[in-house]
Write a structure and sequence with these properties.
Blueprint: E1 2-8, E2 11-17, E3 21-28, H1 34-42, E4 61-68, H2 72-78, E5 82-84, E6 89-95, E7 100-112, E8 115-126, E9 131-141, E10 147-158, E11 161-169, E12 177-188, E13 191-196, E14 200-202
Antiparallel strand pairs: 1-2, 2-3, 3-4, 4-6, 5-7, 6-7, 7-8, 8-9, 9-10, 10-11, 11-12, 12-13, 12-14
Length: 203
């Protein structure tokens, strides 16, 4: 593989080109400070859970993209229960100063612990008071005989609360679709309240 780093003023460019993935990170970032910075971001939406001291966290402002290639050998070593299809692509940007975050991903197939997610897409974006995530998948295969089709997951996170909507529709001759709405409120790290709201089941 080939790893290169350049710096232009306060902006850094990291490029990794290899047989298993191509990665590019461009901007002002600190890898060691990133987990704490993301906690600070989440404290805007779940302050009762992410309630640490974030006053001296280094600023982050960067864009990134990751293109997965043939990665079986690497994943077998570091994450043997995970497989990621070649041409899976993830991109996004993060600015801790303006509290802006974007993530988008697409994959023909991702498998985890024997469950296959086929034609998967994800988009996550935030505003001043809300973090939204939407993910769709053409088919989730649990086994040879059990699967769900046209899966869609949507979440809104704000004010120590998470609104969740999960639905699927196999679109078969026999009607089989489900829409589940739920709500979770977090009072502290140890106290959470979860409710299933009125939902629909057609089987």
């Amino acid at each position: 593989f080939n790893l290169s780093t350049d710096q232009f003023g306060n902006k850094k460019v990291l490029k990794l080109n290899s047989d298993f993935a191509d990665v590019k990170i461009n901007g002002n970032y600190s890898v060691l400070e990133l987990p704490k910075s993301l906690e600070k971001l989440m404290s805007n939406y779940l302050p009762s859970y992410f309630n640490g001291n974030y006053k001296n966290v280094a600023a982050q402002n960067f864009e990134y993209n990751i293109l997965f290639k043939k990665n079986d050998a690497v994943l077998r070593l570091f994450a043997p229960e995970l497989t990621i299809a070649p041409k899976t692509f993830i991109r996004g940007k993060y600015n801790s100063i303006s509290n802006s975050f974007e993530l988008a991903g697409v994959s023909s197939k991702i498998s985890y612990q024997g469950i296959d997610f086929k034609n998967w897409n994800i988009v996550a974006v935030n505003s001043d008071n809300k973090l939204q995530l939407n993910s769709v998948c053409d088919k989730v295969q649990f086994s040879d005989s059990l699967s769900v089709g046209n899966l869609m997951l949507c979440t809104d996170t704000h004010d120590d609360s998470l609104n969740l909507s999960l639905e699927w529709d196999n679109k078969t001759k026999e009607k089989y679709n489900v829409k589940i709405d739920a709500f979770m409120h977090i009072s502290s790290i140890k106290k959470m309240q979860f409710k299933v709201l009125p939902s629909q089941f057609f089987i």
